[in-house]
Write a structure and sequence with these properties.
Pfam families: Hydrolase. InterPro entries: HAD-like_sf, HAD-like_SPP, HAD-SF_hydro_IA, HAD_sf, PGP-like_dom2. It comes from Carboxylicivirga marina. Keywords: Hydrolase. The protein is of the alpha/beta class and 221 residues long. The protein folds into two domains: 9-21 and 91-219, 3-Layer(aba) Sandwich (Rossmann fold); 22-86, Putative phosphatase, domain 2 (DNA polymerase, domain 1, Orthogonal Bundle). 45% of the residues lie in helices and 11% in strands. The protein has ten helices and six strands. It has helices at 22-34, 42-47, 53-65, 71-86, 97-106, 122-130, 151-160, 174-182, 197-202, 212-219; strands spanning 9-12, 110-114, 137-138, 167-171, 186-190, 207-209. It has a six-stranded parallel beta sheet. The radius of gyration is 17 Å and the shape is globular. The mean pLDDT is 95.
Amino acid sequence: MPRPNNIQAVFFDMDGVLYDSMPNHEYTWIHSLKEYGIDFPPEQAYMNEGRTGFSTIRMAFEKYLNRTASKEEQEAVYALKTKLMSKRPKAPLLPKMQELVQNLRNNGVQVFVVTGSKQPSLVEKLSANFGVRKSNIVSGADVKQGKPHPEPYLMAWKKSGIEKKNCLVVENAPMGVEAAKAAGIYTVAVNTGKLNDSVLQNAGANELFGNTVDLHNSLSR
């Protein structure tokens, strides 16, 4: 499947693509779930990135405790994770991503962000750092089914009004790649985390880059 010749819309994941925020997510998942007796392996934060928060909590309880998390437990774990995240260092922007987003926009390409996060500061942060409007964001609060279900990317695609053959997704997580591929959109993976390249390739990525600088150089016009 060749890369679209006439890219008119790009859908970016957020954590691990625009921001180097996955180390913070790794830390907060490990420590919020530890409160409930779950020894959450660090790589699982990357394998499950893109899920909604409550979906990740349900998965962790089923996988490591062999039981279903109650609604109260899900809310408590998520509240603790949010609290821990508020105390973490501010995640830096990944190299050359501001430049890439601006370059695409200067060339008339629509830019969207598709993320499983639903943190309150999301819209303000993306607007300040990348000039992305609220209307061009699909968050965990907007969807009924998060990644790896295609709903998030299908929702962004419908917002764009662009033919799929002229759209492209940038992801860093296997579940995000699966979601984008299930939505029928050409998918570029950038491996900014701890996973082997093969995990992203096996998820169906059409292209793979080892860092955001190489991604910028490839997609800039």
